[in-house]
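job 3f2a | input accepted
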Amino acid sequence: MFDFKRLWLCGLTLLPAAVLAQNPDPQTGWFAFSPKNDFRPGAIGLAHWLPRPAGQHGFAQMQADRIVFENGTPVKFWGVNIGDRACYPPAARADSLVNYWAKYGINAVRFHKMTWHQRQGDSSTVMNQFFWERFDYFQTQLRQRGIYYGWSHIYGHRVAPADSSRLLAYSEVRNLKYPWAHLNGTTSSLVNFAPDLQELSIELTVNMLNHRNQATGLRYADDPALAFVELQNEDNIFWSAIGESLKQAPTYRRLLGRQFAAWLARRYPNDAALRAAWGAEHLPAGEGLAAGEVSPAPNHGLFGWEYETALKENRPMRRHILDKIAFLYQTQAEFYARFAKAIRATGYRGLIVGSCWQAGSGPSHFFNLHADYQVGIIDRHNYYGGGGGHTLKPGRFQSAPMLAQPGSGLLSTSLQQVADRPFAFSEWMSLIPNEYTAEAPPLMALYGMGLQGWDASFHFSANWPGFTPGLALPGGNIYNADSPSQIGLYPALARLVYRGEITEGATLATRRVNLDSLAQGRVGFTERVVQGYDVKSIEGEVSPRTLAAGRNVVAFGNQAGSEQSPQLTTLIDETAKIIRSNTGQLAWHYGERPYVTANTPFTKAVVGFAQGRPQAFAEVELELATPFAVVLVTATDQAAPLATARQWLVTVLARSQNTGMAFNPARDTLLAVGRPPLLLEPVDLALKFNRPGRPRITVLDHDGLPTPRQVPVRNGRARLQGQRDQALYYLVEFD
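job 3f2a | predicted structure (735 res):
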């Protein structure tokens, strides 16, 4: 179960009960979400926005802190994840997925952990013909529709009988048990220091890159539609799970101990010198340079605790901890360098990702970040909300919206963005049963991809060929992007991202990190990573609130310490409780009823608790009568702004629930999961048009196709009534 105490410590305050308990009978007047999953474009489709085929501009590459193709064309990837067996579906399902994603403007897909099954015979490094026939077809269809793909193919490499003769202790790895059953029998955690296990991951990856897609005729190493290759998912040498792995794998525990002893022997002449530096109590009996084995105790929990305790006690970090961190970092970096070299040797010229995982607080955190930095782009994961486990079930959950604390939740992940590297957020989701999940995609698009200048986003996950019938995936999995509150918002948000409407903000806060200082335990500023399983946040002297005002980055170099621009104070109005972006386009109202507004020539947005608070934009005025809602008014054309565009798309969405879903009075405990169909809370919105042309408003169905129904417009004013219209999309056309 997620660690709610830690979430409270992050400063995520609940809104008043009167705001959360908006309706004593919340499903009264709600209407069924009933798409036919019709992938014709209708009024919302974006397939024609995706340049075809993917790869026409060459491979995706790093250019300082952004991604560009080889011909210099910049790109932002606005994508989704697909996982496991869903990565190689039958042709008909693949076609449906491609048509669905293209319609909703998805230009990239992260293929996740697709190599656990369908290996050739007893091999763990060769995929079989069944896999390749389906996988090649799927990749080809994506390529032809202008959708890029990336490989997150290793989430713990599952060993197989053919590996038995090449591993130090095959049976130890084969029999490994983790708290997470899907990692049982894999090289997870151990691979970061064990060359024999590394060779399996490298060989599998090289074999896949050398495979020739029979439909395109290209090796994947030569396919520029392959945007990135990830070395490993959610793993690093500091991960606390490695302790349990080492207990079960004594051969690899001894290997790690010998490696560390050899590293120490290059720094200390003998055991006496080592004890003098460390303190005798920190060198266990039977370990030492003479014994040829010293355990580095690889556990980010221990390292983070030492860092935080040293700060509290105003003392230096202890030398034995610093030596362990430095050794582990160097070992990790050597593995990544070896892996990346093998990938480049195939001729692959695209992006490389090290991994996507954190490593506690303090030096271990920043050394791990630097290991990823050395090999390629920075990529991270985070989740928000949820309750216990991966399935929707009764129980307590995180009920507060992220809007309540500027820069909190998913957005706080941006505090790991590095100044001169592209940044990707390759797994994220605001998890049900939190009622305000619709806030997440706009915040990621406006503040992440926009103000913070992120380069890639991959929603986790989209395994269903269209929208699911209930709030969760069939079977109850809560990691479901195929819902109206997530991908249902993409017709507006993808347009915003691809047009580059939100200007990247000027950097307002920089945390400078020097590796030599890190090795001495000096970060240069105070910062703490708080983690409860998948849910992570960062707190420190540079507040996450700065993310609502402008860019906030880490910079590796010769200096250590934090810098904040004096302009920051002018952007935060503590009296009115508003943080304005330094681009002038965004405003985060963080008071009792928080909401965000966005104002660009192409899009006007209101996200959150703006009921009864009129929002006056140049082209349109909006006033919500619904307590919580997302309102996106966007020009449908790629070039014409709202002031002159012939068509606007208006997207409105509030809460969504299963039929019969029930909560306690405080709305922080789920009492009943409910059942399909999915119900949408009606949104009541008044509009006043302030531009030339007579507006005509057509109600669109749940697939974005026109219906015969019109919304009356009188004297340039109209009222969208969700209970009457039962709609989330409206098309506004000007004569």
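job 3f2a | DSSP finds 17 helices and 36 strands in the chain.
job 3f2a | closed
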